[in-house]
Specification:
- The structure holds two protein chains of two kinds.
- Helix content of chain A is about 35%, strand content about 25%.
- Chain A has nine helices and eleven strands.
- In chain A, helix 4 (about 125-130) links the parallel strand 7 (about 115-120) and strand 8.
- In chain A, helix 1 (about 65-75) runs parallel beside helix 3 and helix 7 (about 190-200) runs parallel beside helix 9 (about 240-250).
- The termini of chain A are far apart.
- The mean pLDDT of chain A is about 95.
- In chain B, strands 1, 7, 8, 11, 12 and 13 form a six-stranded mixed sheet that branches.
- In chain B, strand 5 (about 430-435) and strand 6 form a beta hairpin.
- The chains are: A alpha/beta, B alpha/beta.
Chain lengths: ~260, ~850
């Protein structure tokens, strides 16, 4: 089968993304995720199946890699000028390894930068066989350093993911740690210190992005007939973000606020 | 805070100059009108070119002059800061009727003192029946006049005012002074064969040129004397020294070659301000200032006679001065050109005539001046080519990020071939600058007549539905009734015919105006600074320039393209509606006719029957009717909404937009102007998409009657949903190169999109990516919606909020409410989720 014909399920394609890897990028949001983070700003990507929202809007459609690339290629002039390209997000792109692999390989063959935003969920074999070869940058989500607390809130322990991350990093893959800063979950200096230490322990990892919690996804929960569990939790203040950044830097990482 | 790629200290003088300049509402003064009237009265037996020169001499001799507190560069066309003179020789009736309302109007108000009103009313009677606009009107074909009355096109700018829209050969005046120019004219005069059939006309101009050069020198000497007098009374020794320096410079330049950067700045300013005293034409554009001024800066820096900081202070002072010049327009034009703008376009960067990168330290300093001053003028532009240094573009992005809408970005890779396609040499095309809003020109060699008229591309589409009849009059071509049209191709053909017909009517009216200016207002002063006027012995208005163009600009592409796409899909592909349905819907304004008026009529009827509903009941009746009537069209409107729209990188509709643009740009190429040049199309509305949208009926794209048309070549307001790269790609699919009179693409960004060094780099990459696809121009508003909304509510808290309007920036609070709303409604691109 040609790579172009590989079929996958996506929710949307977002052009001119500035904060999901280097340069100007097109982000493909894949459908399906293993975790259920209550702060998730893309709740429509969590379920694997196609969903119909209350207002009749459909979330999820099956497309070929070729169709996605047609849209992605439209911004080639901007990738060329900015060093940008494609980022697979979601959802968890590792749940659709063949499709993700096809997209990354096609993008790579066009000379675009390739990135995924992922928790490194799944088997390392799959990641190694399908993803790493055509991948430039792995944006690794680390939500907590404590696997128990991770499991309690997101539904899954992250011990296997961290183990995968260790192997991914060891393979020489460029990897950047990304941490959503969530109120009452991981927004203390101690939380960030532990996460930063964990990230630093991965071979070759130098950068960490601290992404402040926001509520932009709240409306989508209502559309899906779901309750937004974050209540009225407030985004972290600039001062707190600055303190967390300094904490991460103290662990020897190059830290930045935002993607 | 990250470090800037280039920065120099801002002098404390700058905010004080600005404070003084903006302390009061600008004011109209009567002196020029009186002086010119008097000069005309005593020269009735002279040829018109000499009469103009005598009038200019009289202005230079006796118009009141002022040196404002703390300024380092002198030269003011009015006593009041940001004041203006009037130009009754072009038109005055509008001013006569607006004398009492100018102060209270919404767009660009001016104070006019009772004394000024009396003095102006005294001179107006002399001009009745004698103005250039009177003559132009009598020269137009009746059907062309009707085209204006029915808002097919609007040549109002030059119909009622001077032409402007050029960049003179500043370099030559700086190098040889007006004494040198005068000598050139004198040599040409003595070399002119006595038997030359053009002798009377040519000798009149050459003599007029000599008079004008002397007048300019004399005008400067009046400043020298004034500065000296002021220095004598000045208690502060530092200011005394500054005034003495001004006195010395004004005694020497612009008559003689500038000897220092400071004198070059002073000489430049006399040229710039005096041109705007000779005629009311706007868009007098300094052009490639960083190129022709650089030799003086370089020399002074090498000699150690100037510091970069002082040079920057001089530039900053000059930048403030650009905002001191002003012009009162009639009420309607003030809406179209809102923001007290004179469109003095100054451009940096680009290439040299031999194709090398032209960036120098002055290029950066001009950007820095815009950042220091943060005022609307000059309209700062930057030329971008494949070899532009990244540092320059980053500096430009830094300035754009401040939110002042400056600089605008221009693409050498599109503009140079575009100009060569119009007959310019490679070297000439490489030396282009931008005039006014977005119009490319070879400075010092061109009479471009850019901005000759606004051409509304949606009106011919309306006429397709009425067989050319508007308000009961046959003003368009009599095309087939839409009921008989059975294919999209036939419809497109009818549109083509209406476009060509309207364009040729427009050409008739513009050519009449052109001839009127030649007859009534040849301008010897500006002409002596543009090649080949002296060599040919002809003023600019008589065809003296080497390159002559006429550039009227079409607008409403996005609406026309969306409209055609909606028809193509809903009528001819899906057969869900007929053209008659569209016709009926447009006539009914999609059910949004004046229903409250209708309700009031019903209420009147009820009252007759003895029932008296109150205002609230009337409103309810109105709402009920609206619901009933609009329900009929709601489905059509929602179906139109679901048809693909221009601006989303969808090839089918984008290709239609390209074809629509061709319907305007291609037929224009074959028309000629009276100065021996050709027509070339522009694609931009300045800010006329708002007032001219108000006189456009409902369009098949679902736009309601009277709503603004799309701005520039961009997507219609709020219809671009796929972000800036998709919008850029759609716009780049138009043929910009054939639109050699310029195209205009506005984008609006939320400040967060340009945050940090990475934000700047991505912004530059976006511009680069757009330009790689041969886009011609792009400009940016970097401001959040909340700020604009707050400025509408609390104008006094946002006195200095500068925004990009069209090809220029303006103070937001000086714009009319409808234009403010239009700017707010443009799509803002910001963070992707």
């Amino acid at each position: 089968m040609r790579l172009e014909d590989e079929v996958g399920r996506i929710v949307s394609i977002q052009r001119f993304s500035l904060h999901d890897g280097p340069g100007i990028r097109t982000v493909v949001f894949l459908k399906g995720c293993a975790l259920r983070c209550p702060w998730c700003c893309n709740p429509e990507t969590q379920e694997t199946g196609v969903q119909i929202a209350i207002d009749g809007k459909t979330f999820g459609k099956d497309v070929t890699a070729g169709e996605v690339m047609e849209e992605v290629e439209r911004d080639e002039p901007y990738y060329r000028r900015s060093g940008g390209g494609i980022t697979l997000s979601g959802g968890e792109c590792l749940l659709q390894p063949q499709f993700s692999s096809a997209l990354l390989s096609l993008a790579k063959s066009k000379g675009f930068s390739t990135a995924i935003e992922s928790t490194a969920y799944g088997s390392y074999e799959t990641i190694k066989n399908f993803i790493l070869d055509p991948l430039d940058i792995f944006l690794l989500d680390i939500k907590h350093a404590d696997p128990e607390k991770h499991k309690q809130i997101t539904g899954k322990s992250n011990a296997p993911m961290i183990e995968n991350a260790r192997q991914i990093a060891a393979s020489g893959q460029k990897l950047i740690a990304r941490v959503p800063i969530i109120p009452n979950f991981n927004d203390t200096c101690a939380d960030i210190r532990d996460i930063a230490r964990l990230a630093k322990s991965l071979p070759g990892v130098e950068k960490i992005h601290l992404l402040p919690y926001h509520m932009y996804g709240a409306g989508k929960y209502a559309a899906l007939g779901r309750k937004y569990l974050m209540g009225d939790a407030k985004p972290p203040t600039d001062a707190l973000m600055q303190a967390l950044k300094e904490e991460a830097e103290a662990q020897g990482l190059d830290a930045q606020i935002g993607g | 805070m990250q470090e800037s790629v280039f920065s120099l200290k801002k002098s404390e003088r700058v905010p004080r100059l600005i404070e003084h300049l903006y302390a009061k509402m600008p004011e109209v003064e009567a002196d020029r009108a009186e002086i010119v009237t008097e000069a005309y009265r005593r020269t009735e037996n002279l040829p018109i070119t000499l009469r103009r020169a005598e009038a200019f001499r009289a202005i230079c001799e006796s118009v009141p002059i002022a040196i404002r507190p703390l300024e380092l560069v002198a030269g003011s066309n009015s006593l009041a800061p940001r004041g203006c003179q009037t130009f009754p020789e072009y038109s005055f009736e509008w001013l006569e009727s607006e004398l009492d309302t100018a102060e209270t109007r919404s767009a660009d108000p001016f104070r006019i003192s009772e004394d000024t009103k009396v003095r102006l009313r005294r001179v107006f009677p002399y001009w009745r029946g004698k103005t250039s606009s009177d003559l132009a009107r009598s020269l137009m074909a009746p059907q062309a006049l009707a085209g204006i009355d029915h808002n097919l096109y609007t040549p109002g700018n030059y119909f009622y005012n001077g032409i402007g829209h050029f960049s003179v050969n500043y370099r030559e005046v700086l190098e040889i002074g007006f004494s040198g120019i005068k000598e050139k004219a004198a040599r040409a005069l003595s070399a002119l064969p006595i038997h030359d059939p053009g002798y009377p006309q040519k000798s009149a101009f050459l003599k007029a040129a000599i008079i004008s050069c002397d007048a300019a020198s004399l005008y400067a000497k009046r400043y020298a004397k004034l500065a000296q007098d002021m220095a004598g009374k000045e208690p502060d020794p530092k200011r005394r020294q500054e005034l003495n320096l001004i006195a010395q410079s004004c005694a020497w330049v612009p008559e003689n070659p500038a000897r220092s950067f400071q004198e070059a700045c002073q000489s430049f300013w006399f040229i710039q301000s005096l041109i705007q005293s000779e005629s009311s034409g706007h868009s007098i554009s300094p052009g490639r200032f960083d190129q022709y001024m650089h030799p003086w800066l370089k020399k002074d820096l090498e000699a150690g006679s100037i510091t970069l900081e002082y040079a920057q202070e001089l530039l900053d002072c000059l930048w403030v001065k650009f905002n001191d010049l002003n012009k009162i327009r009639d009420k309607d034009s003030a809406e179209g050109f809102a923001g007290y703008s004179l469109f003095q376009n100054l451009i940096v960067g680009g290439q040299t005539e031999d194709g090398r990168d032209a960036t120098n330290v002055l290029s950066y300093m001009c950007l820095e001046a815009a950042d220091h001053v943060r005022l609307p003028a000059p309209s700062l532009s930057i030329r971008v080519w494949n070899g532009s240094p990244k540092k320059l573009l980053l500096k430009a992005a830094e300035v754009a990020r401040t939110g002042i809408g400056l600089p605008a970005f221009y693409n050498d890779e599109a503009i140079i071939p575009s100009m060569m396609s119009r007959g310019l040499t490679l070297a000439e095309a490489r030396d282009y600058c931008i005039i006014g809003c977005v119009e490319p020109q070879k400075a010092g060699f061109t009479d471009g007549w850019h901005d000759a008229a606004f051409f509304n591309m949606c009106r011919p589409l309306e006429l397709v539905f009425s067989q050319g009849v508007d308000a009961g009059e046959q003003i368009g071509a009599k095309t087939v009734p839409v009921e008989e049209i059975s294919s999209f191709e036939e419809l497109f053909e009818a549109y083509r015919i209406q476009m060509e017909h309207a364009a040729s009517l427009m050409v008739n009216s513009i050519n009449a105006i052109d001839l009127a200016h030649k007859t009534k207002a040849p301008l010897p002063f500006q002409s002596c600074m543009i090649e080949d006027c002296i060599e040919k012995g002809l003023t600019l208005q008589e065809g003296g320039a080497r390159h002559n163009f006429t550039g009227p600009q079409g607008f409403g592409i996005a609406n026309a393209a969306d409209a055609l796409m909606a028809i193509k899909k809903l009528v001819f592909e899906d057969s869900r509606y007929t053209l008659s349905d569209f016709k009926e819907a447009m006539q009914a304004n999609f059910g949004h006719e004046d229903l409250v008026g209708l309700a009031t009529a019903i209420a009147g009827e009820l009252a007759r029957q003895g029932i008296t509903p109150d205002a609230e009941q009337i409103r309810l009746i109105g709402n009920e009717i609206e619901k009933a009537v609009s329900g009929k069209w709601a489905k059509l409107l929602s179906d139109i909404q679901s048809v693909p729209k221009y601006g989303n990188d969808i090839d089918e509709v984008d290709s239609l937009a390209r074809e629509v643009a061709y319907l305007y740009t291609k037929p224009l190429e074959k028309h000629k102007n009276p100065r021996g040049g050709i027509y070339q199309a522009g694609l931009y509305p300045v800010s006329a998409n708002v007032p001219l949208g108000a006189s456009t009926g409902a369009t098949p794209d679902g736009r309601l009657k009277g709503a603004p048309l799309a701005d520039g070549v961009g997507p219609a307001q709020g219809r671009d949903e796929k972000g800036p790269t998709a919008a850029c790609n759609s716009v780049a699919k138009l043929d910009h190169i054939i639109a050699s009179n310029g195209t205009l693409f506005n984008q609006k960004f939320h400040p967060t999109a340009l945050a940090g060094q990475e934000g700047l780099e991505k912004f530059v990459a976006l511009v680069r990516g757009f330009f790689d696809q041969k886009g011609m121009h792009a400009q940016f508003n970097v401001v959040d919606r909340e700020t604009l909304l707050d400025a509408q509510k609390n104008p006094s808290a946002h006195k200095n909020l500068v925004v990009r309007v069209a090809g220029y920036s303006a103070l937001f609070i000086s714009l009319s409410k409808s234009l403010q709303d239009d700017i707010i409604s443009r799509t803002t691109h910001g963070f992707a989720s």
